[in-house]
């Protein structure tokens, strides 16, 4: 095990993976009732991809409602 030097800590931080999952909640402000929920589905290391997946689901659901 290392001595915790700044260089060792930096190396550990650079190799750790960021895990992202985006979840969107749309609520009625007056009642607090949840109107819609969408999630990216899977956990990913790509933060942008998680958000894009969530918004894509919202757009797909909106298009199906407008048909």
Structure report:
The mean pLDDT is 77. The chain has a two-stranded antiparallel ribbon. The protein has one domain (14-66). Helix content is 45%, strand content 16%. It is flat. With 67 residues, it is α+β, with helices and mostly antiparallel strands.
How would you concisely characterize the structure shown here?
The protein is of the alpha+beta class and 67 residues long. It has one domain. Helix content is 45%, strand content 16%.
What portion of residues is helical? 40-55%
Q: Low-confidence spans: pLDDT under 50, at least 5 residues? A: none
As for the number of domains, it is 1
Global morphology: flat
Number of strands: 2
Order of helices and strands: HEEH
Structural class: alpha+beta
What fraction of the residues are assigned to beta strands by DSSP?
A: 15-25%
Q: How many helices does DSSP assign?
A: 2
Provide mean pLDDT, rounded: 77
Sequence of strands across the biggest β-sheet: 1-2
**Rg measurement, Å:** 19 Å
Characterize the main sheet.
2 strands, antiparallel
Distance between the amino and carboxyl termini: 61 Å
């Amino acid at each position: 095990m290392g001595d915790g030097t700044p260089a060792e800590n930096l190396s550990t931080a650079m190799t750790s993976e960021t895990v992202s999952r985006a979840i969107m909640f749309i609520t009625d402000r007056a009642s607090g009732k949840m109107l819609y929920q969408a999630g990216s589905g899977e956990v990913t290391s790509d933060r942008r991809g998680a958000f894009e997946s969530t918004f894509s689901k919202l757009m797909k659901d909106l298009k199906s409602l407008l048909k």
